[in-house]
Structures are given as structure tokens and as C-alpha cells.
Specification:
12 helices, two-stranded antiparallel sheet, Cytochrome Bc1 Complex, Chain D, domain 2, globular, homodimer
């Protein structure tokens, strides 16, 4: 019996090696399952990600606009902020965001940790302050104990808060999509139409920007390269960070991973369907008018990019204490 | 080996019987763990409970105001509705709500299923209509398949929607609190202070309304029995349902299960702490001014009512299709 177990183990090990060797040589690489090195920090970050007490109203958490039940986005054109303020831009998915060269559409945050501090203190989003967020968490005994256990001391500051949130977000990777299986050598993972869509996606130049394991997130590109993009949205893109006129309307290329789930599309959320997004991209960025058939093929391919969504137990938040600052939704 | 397994089984079975026999004869009974008879319906109901597409804005779900990370409530005085409208009343916890004689503070819904339809169509809450909710779900292939699998046919109507939500809510029972362990015979489950608090809770009359497995939810009682309750909140209570003047300010007695998590308290959410709530209840309902020590004892007892919170995997919602009605948060 021992011998047969050993035989199975050796076979599996060889199969694993053979599998790795068959990854196709393509401009897109399979996603690796996330490696969790500090599960306690991830667990704390998950709580914070879901905690609306990081907002002034006590109603908005990270998950409100990056909803992990809905592809890590809110599926709205632009988000809803404190007191129902209309957000300026489409909420990008948090899924696979650790693979991006920078965060936000204009890349103004260098890291997930830096990003996490933004919405908390943005008066149009969670409308809190870092000082009040820290004061709030310090007053909650359950958090104090958990910060102590994770960081080795009970002190809570905005760096630790955003560090934990980023640690959780780094686990939000979505491997094992049909396209990944195909990349890893499984010929049956894609239908003929899906494969035709991928072939066209490559041949017509989409892949010039949407490459790498996340199919995007690796460069800033002008929205409306060959033809001007008409929008009522005032965002000017990367120029807001660099101050350079040539960066106007240059945005971080969004990942196409799970794009089936992250509608509506573009920084202004104006494309409601994948068909519309593919059509606009073809015309404005590539000077090409796809036929209905071609668009349908590309859309079929794009839907193969939906991977395993993060599945986890909904966090239970430690209750406030009597001296915890109370939410102020209506003041 | 078989014999020893049998022996263990017999021992466990006897232990179970002995355990049941030791339940103390008290006006409060232990909670039973929920029995799930139709897990597929519960799973569908969980998705619907978390789906903001049942609201006009696409932003508010059942879980927004009955947040299962926070004791099944929103921890706000009154809730936030569509376009940030200020709700009229404190959001009651959904935990153990299946044990109530009726739903809502004024008991205007006879069942959880009837309740579930209310907020969806309330212009100040989710601000949708039942017709649009049905149209939305019918357009989502993932839901159509799941309704078919759960109900035997693919038709979707508001009865099935609310039936599934209610099935999920019926699982949100929180057994195994320290007080339940004590009720079941474990003398060490409560500290001396907690037991003193319970003794006073009984002796001073709290238990006249807060009895049964949920410590409440079984009757309507006047808020401000011996002394008028002063509040700026316009809710008139049960009179809104019965039309009878004697039912003014009569509200469903809230459950005290998990009361540590469901702050702030009362129908107007005006009591921020348990100490304040106990003090007000003592004076207005019982004509008794508890000392600081007595209040602290009762609060210590109340905190033993926090049971096992529902733990479940965060649901993944099926994506909208191209013809799914789009949310209208800003129109």
C-alpha cells in the first residue's frame, strides 16, 4: 500500500512538471494562486475592508465600491460616496489589483497600501480622516487585541491599517479561468469561437496594451488614440499626476481579468456592455471597425477570463465600545 | 474497534439525553441551532440578501441595514435609504428574527417573507418596485437557473424571491451563548457578576417582557409605561397598524439576543450604550432607578447573550446580462 501511494505521488509530481513545461508562449501569462504568508494579517485586513466604521457615516466600507460579491467593483457608472455624492470616476476592480504598476485610474498611488488610505480620507467617498479612523479603531478592544497579535504591539496607526488592508487585497487574485487552463496546455478549455476571439484580440492589436498576467495594469495609455474619446466626464487622467499636457486623457490600462463581472466599462463607466466596449476600443484605439461577428468572438474570449473568485467567510467585526466615536451620517 | 466506536456513540447519546434533562427551569430558554432543510433555497436567499440590484440605485441590499458582520444591524440610529434618505426608525437585527411574533417594530408584517418585500418597494429604503425586482432577476441567467433548480421551474416572482430570502433569514439563529451554556447546566459559563445581573433582571421585572428563547419578540408593549418616553421620533408604534389609540407608542419588544452588537437601542436609536438603555428601561418601564452597580451587573448579564454569529461564505452574485435594467443611483 505504501508503494502505491509513493507511485501516485511520483506520478503527480511528474505531471506537475510536465504541466508547467506546457505553458504556451503567449503575450498573456496564467495567474498564480495567491500565496498567503501572514494569514492573521490578511484576516485583520479583511475585517477592515468590510468595516464601515472607517467612514464618517458608518455606512460605507471598502467593500461598498469594491464589492467582492460582484467582481470587486460596484457595477455603477461612478460610485456613491458620503451623503450620496456622485463619484468622479468608475470604481476599478480590486481583483488582481496587486498586479498593477500603480493604483487609481491615473496611477496617483504607488501601492495598494497607499491607495487604501485615499478613499478613507476623501470627503466625497468615505469622508473620514486618518486621525479619526485611528481613534475609532483604538477604541475597539477587539481590534486592539488583533493589531497586537498581528504586529507584535497594540499600537494602531494609519500605516498599520492600510498595511493590513493591502495584505488582504493581495490575496484577491483569480486564477484558473478557462483561458488560464488553455494557456497551461488544456486544448479543450476554449471553444472554437473563444479561440477565434483570442486570435483576433492578438492580431488586431488589443494585446499591445492588454498583455501580461492581468491583461493590463502595466502601462498608461491615451484614451482616444486615433479618434477623440467624447465624454462628459471631467477626468484628465495621468496629467493630473504629472502635470504634463501630453498625459491628458492617458489612463492606466485596466485589467481584463473578470471583465464579464466588472461592467460598466471605461474610466467614465459609459460603456454598458462588453460589445460596446470592444467596438469603441476597436475604433478609437486601433482604427478598426469590428464586424458584429468579430465583436462577438472577442467578447466570447473576454468571458473566458473569469477566474476563481475569492471565496472566504464573511468577517465578523468586533463591536464598538462606549467611547468609540459614533457615526455621523446626517450631520 | 467496532465495539469501541459503538461504545462512544452510546456514551454521546446518553450524554446528550442527560444534557437535555439539565436545562434549567427559567423564563428564558436556550436557542436551538438552526435546522436547514433546503440548503439550495437558503443559498439562493443568501445571494438575494446581498444583492444590491434589488434596489433602484444598485447600491443598497438587505445586508446594508441588516449587516451580518455587525450583529445583523447597521449600528446607526436610523438607517440610510435611497439617495441618503434618513430612515424613520432604528433597523432591528435580522438575527433570530424568525422567533418574533411579527416583523417590523410595529409588527405590520406577519412573517419574514412578508417583511422582505417591504424595504425593496419602500421609496425611502431600496426604492425599487416588486415588478422591477422581478424583471431584473429574470434577466440574469444565473438567477434563472438557480430559481429553476430550487423551485422546480424557472419562473421568478416576488413570492419566490421573498420566500428564498426568508429561508436564508431563518438560518440566522445564534445559539451557544454563555447564557445558553449556563441554561443548559454549565455552572461555570457565567461569572458571579453576570449571574447577579441575571438575578436582578428577573427580580426587577425585565423578564416580564424579555422572556422566551429570544428574550423578546413575543409581545407588543408600551414604550414609556410608568413615565412618558420623550423622543423627537414621530413613530407611533402599533397604533399605525391597529388604528387604536391605546396602541400608541406600543412597539414589539426587541430581542435581547446579541444586544452587545446591536447598538444603538430603542426604536429611535437614541440610547447609545447598554448602560443608558438599562437605565431608561428601569425608570420608564419598571419605575426603578438602578444603581451604577446594578446597571453594570445587568449589562454584564446582557453581554452573555452574544451567541455564535452566522458564519458563511460570502456569496458570489451572478452577473447582469446586457438587457438587465441598469441601476439609477443619480436620476
Amino acid at each position: 500500500m505504501k508503494a502505491s501511494i509513493l507511485a501516485v505521488a511520483v506520478t503527480l509530481s511528474l505531471a506537475g512538471a510536465a504541466w508547467a513545461a506546457t505553458v504556451r508562449n503567449e503575450p498573456i501569462q496564467p495567474l498564480d494562486a495567491p500565496k498567503v504568508t501572514n494569514p492573521a494579517k490578511v484576516e485583520l485586513g479583511k475585517k477592515l475592508f468590510f468595516d464601515p466604521r472607517l467612514s464618517r457615516s458608518g455606512f460605507i466600507s471598502c467593500n461598498s465600491c469594491h464589492n467582492l460579491s460582484m467582481g470587486g467593483s460596484d457595477n455603477l457608472k461612478t460610485s456613491i460616496g458620503d451623503k450620496w455624492q456622485q463619484g468622479p470616476i468608475n470604481s476599478p476592480t480590486v481583483l488582481n489589483s496587486s498586479l498593477s504598476l500603480a493604483q487609481f485610474w491615473d496611477g496617483r498611488a504607488a501601492s495598494l497600501q497607499e491607495q487604501a488610505g485615499g478613499p478613507i480620507a476623501n470627503p466625497a467617498e468615505m469622508a473620514y480622516t486618518h486621525e479619526l479612523a485611528v481613534e475609532t479603531l483604538r477604541s475597539i478592544p477587539g481590534y486592539v487585541a488583533e493589531f497586537k497579535s498581528v504586529f507584535g504591539s497594540a499600537s494602531i496607526d494609519i500605516e498599520r491599517i492600510t498595511d493590513a488592508i493591502a495584505a488582504f487585497e493581495e490575496t484577491l487574485v483569480t486564477p484558473h479561468s478557462p483561458f488560464d487552463l488553455w494557456l497551461q496546455g488544456d486544448d479543450k478549455a476554449l471553444t472554437e469561437r473563444e479561440l477565434a476571439g483570442y486570435t483576433l484580440f492578438k492580431a488586431s492589436g488589443c494585446v499591445a496594451c492588454h498583455y501580461g498576467p492581468a491583461l493590463g495594469g502595466t502601462s498608461f495609455q491615451k484614451m482616444g488614440l486615433l479618434e477623440q474619446y467624447k465624454t462628459g466626464n471631467p477626468a484628465i487622467g495621468r496629467a493630473a499626476v504629472t502635470g504634463k499636457d501630453e498625459d491628458r486623457m492617458s489612463f492606466k490600462v485596466p485589467t481584463l481579468r473578470n471583465v464579464e463581472l466588472t461592467y460598466p466599462y471605461f474610466h467614465d463607466g459609459e460603456a454598458e456592455t462588453l460589445e460596446e466596449a470592444v467596438d469603441v476600443m476597436g475604433r478609437l484605439q486601433l482604427g478598426r471597425k469590428y464586424t458584429e461577428q468579430e465583436t462577438a468572438d472577442i467578447v466570447a474570449f473576454l468571458k473566458t477570463l473569469t477566474g476563481d473568485q475569492p471565496t472566504f467567510v464573511m468577517p465578523l467585526l468586533p463591536p464598538s465600545a462606549n467611547d468609540t466615536p459614533r457615526p455621523k451620517p446626517f450631520e
